[in-house]
Design brief:
- The complex is a heterodimer.
- In chain A, about 35% of the residues lie in helices and about 25% in strands.
- By secondary structure, chain A is α/β, with parallel strands linked by helices.
- Chain B is built from eight helices and 15 strands.
- The chains are: A alpha/beta, B alpha/beta.
Amino acid sequence: MSTSSISLAEAIRLHVSDGDSVALEGFTHLIPFAAGHEIIRQRRRDLTLVRLTPDLICDQLIGMGCAKKLVFSWGGHPGVGSLHRFRDAVEKAWPAPLEIDERSHAAMSAAYVAGAAGLPMAVLRGFVGSDLPNHNANIRFIECPFTQEKLAATPAINPDVAIIHAQKADRQGNVLLWGIVGVQKEIALAATRCIVTVEEIVDKLEAPPNACVLPAWTIDAICEVPGGAFPSYAHGYYERDNAAYLAWDAVSKSREQFTAWMDQHVLGTENFAEFRHQLAS
Amino acid sequence: MKSPTRTEIMTIVASRLLGDGSTCFVGIGIPSMAANLARLTHAPDVVLIYESGTIGAKPNILPLSIGDGELAETADTVVSTPEIFAYWLQGGRVDVGFLGAAQVDKFANLNSTVIGEYQTPKVRLPGAGGAPEIAALAKDTLIIINHDPRKLVERVDFITSPGYLDGGDARKKAGLKGGPSAVITDLGVLVPEVDSKELIVSQVHAGVTRDQIQEATGWELRFADQVTETEPPTELELTALRQLLERTEASRRQAS
């Protein structure tokens, strides 16, 4: 079975609806920014965003009013400081209140594994002594039936849609990613539907055995979006644009400046290629 | 050579505490700077693990994020996020966790979640990331933080990551081993007292007075019987650190 490629706009139209839970994954690497922008352009609302490290992509979605809830484990601006739009939503309910389900990286990634494995929950040695379980009913403790050790349990995460970015797909729709592979395989398999944007579509993947490959039949839409992870990076294609990351701090600080930037660069462009072109000029 | 800044001294002192050959789970920012300085000076065989899944990373420049390509390219191996936490950290393969935080308290508990109430925070901080499990599962934890009475507080607003909880044997009773062995600041070094587990000053950097360190601390500090003065940075340490930062700066300038 093969998955033919479609435009990103079409993929978001078909697979992301208001109210869906949407996991946009990529651990600092291969972050699906182009797909995030397309969700904003199509003005989806009431989404539950799922992501270990919300990063700029969730800052933009939250600030543009697409999200009602965030499931996450680290909501900072890596190496810089705050995600201002995330903070504004949590601290001051702007542009809308944001419900949070906050865990840790270990718990979130274990919850994805459980989701992919069809289990109801993940078990880990975690959260002992932390205040997080006092504030999140999705972190509880159980006793190991064999050793009586106290362990943390957290429900599996099975989002409606997973969206990831990868380096390559072949013409049948098989996907290959490498470098820091994060949690992409797990979330792709845990989600009901999966959209993958890729740097390029090639005749042959030439993936070595044991490489991180998602077979075509596990994926619902493939979209060729070169540069689609900018300003994060795609190993072997382009580096992380640290200058763009640093610049985001000033862009996102005030509501007005953020809104103007998003209006001009995201809502004011047709697609990611035009966004890149406009930003560079 | 220009005399060292407080931040340079803090970084160098922290780097000295990392043993050669140990496996170290590294947080981003100053912990990463100190860990790499250790690797470039006295600990060439230290194994640096970043939560992005890079094991044995040997970056030539400091990463801005926890998952810059530089880490993957210089690592011995790159594994998935579930694997790094499950097999490597939870599996007991980490000697030292190297962490920063927004607040640390008298019993070395760390807060990186909120200032104020959880439901109505004054300041919403980034959150846990990998820290709760690193602080719980690494055999030893080193904490780096700037000395400031709003940062070194009597009791953290929120325990994100456990230190010694309420002190004494509270950590042990909770079922946790290990625990922080030192808090390194820009004024000195605090260590947990043997029985009470209260952080006490064991070392001060040159030129820092007791009053100064007390004023920058949010609880009434106690001092170890023998408070040592920090050995000044060697030329090797200072040069290695400055060159690392210069390479990092140059690379970021070039990219922008």
